[in-house]
Amino acid sequence: MKTYYYVHTGHRIGLDRFRRACAIIRLLKDEDITLLCSDFRIAQVASDFGIEKSVGVDVVRNIPQIALYGDKLIFDSNEANPIMLEDMKNYFSSFVHIEENMVVIDDKYFEKHDKSIELSFYFGDDDYSKDIEKNFAFFDGVEINILLGFYYFLDYEEMLKEKFSSYYEFEEYDEVIMKSKILVTSSPQAALENLASGGKPIYVQREDYPTSFDELFKNLNIPMLKNYENKQLMTILKDLENHEYYKVEHNSDKTFKSLKESLNL
C-alpha cells in the first residue's frame, strides 16, 4: 500500500497548489509519499523543492495508471466532479481532498527574516495571457522589482526585465518572499507566505483566479484590489505604514495531526 499526493499544476493555473503540496509533504516527511503532478515540467524539477519522488501524469484520469486499488491519496485539485470524487473515495483506502482555500505555510516562512527588499511584485508563476504587459500603467510612479514566474515565455521574461527597476529569477522565490518588506502579488500562497515572514502583502485579484481566499484576507486585513488601477495602488502604498495586519495562523502541527488521522498513517 502506497501513499500519493496529486496536485493540479500547469502553465494556465500556476504553482500555488504545488507550493502548498510541498509544504504538506515536508510536514509528513517520515512517510513515503510520491507526488503526482498534472504537468511534467514541474515534476522533473520537484527535487529542487525537497520532493524525493515525483511523477508527471498529464491529466487527473491517469492517476489509476500509477496508483493501485487500496492505495492512499491526497488530492489537491478542483478538476474532479462529484461522481469522480466518489469513485476516488471507493478506489483508495484513504482519500483526503484538500480544500481550495486551505492554508498551509512552510515553517521556514515563520522564521525572522531581514527585510532587505523594499517593494516587490510577483504576479504568479503563470501569465499565459500576458496580463502584466497589458497593465504596465498599474505601476506608474512606483519603484518596484519583479519576481519572474516559472511558466513565463523566454521572450516575455526578457521584455519584463527591461520594464521593471530590477528583477529576480524564479529560483529566488523564497528569498524575495521572505525579504520583501512590501509584496504586491496575485498569488494567494505568496501573500500568505510574505505575511508569515513579517512582510506587508497587497493582493491583486486576477480575473482567472478563484476568490476563495477573500474572506481570509479580509480577516487578516490584507489590502485587496480587484483591478489594476494605479490610483488605488498608490493610495494603499501611501497608507501602508499605519495599516495593521493580523498574524496568519502557524498551523503546521494541527495540519500534521489532521492528515495523519485522515490517512491512517
Main sheet makeup = 6 strands, parallel
CATH topology of the largest domain: Rossmann fold
CATH architecture of the largest domain: 3-Layer(aba) Sandwich
Low-confidence residue ranges: none
Question: Ends: how far apart?
Answer: 11 Å
Integer average pLDDT:
94
CATH superfamily of the largest domain: Glycogen Phosphorylase B
Task: Trace the largest sheet across and list its strands.
Answer: 8-7-6-9-10-11
Number of helical segments?
A: 10
Written as H for each helix and E for each strand, in order along the chain, the element string is EHEHEEHEEHEHEHEHEHEHH
CATH class of the largest domain reads: Alpha Beta
Q: What portion of residues is helical? A: 25-40%
Number of strands: 11
Could you characterize what this model shows?
This protein has a 6-stranded parallel beta sheet, sandwiched between helices. It has 10 helices and 11 strands. It folds into 2 domains: 3-102 and 253-263, Rossmann fold (3-Layer(aba) Sandwich); 107-242, Rossmann fold (3-Layer(aba) Sandwich), CATH 3.40.50. The model has no long low-confidence stretch (mean pLDDT 94). The chain is 32% helix and 17% strand. The radius of gyration is 19 Å and the shape is globular. 37% of the residues are buried. By secondary structure, the chain is an alpha/beta fold.
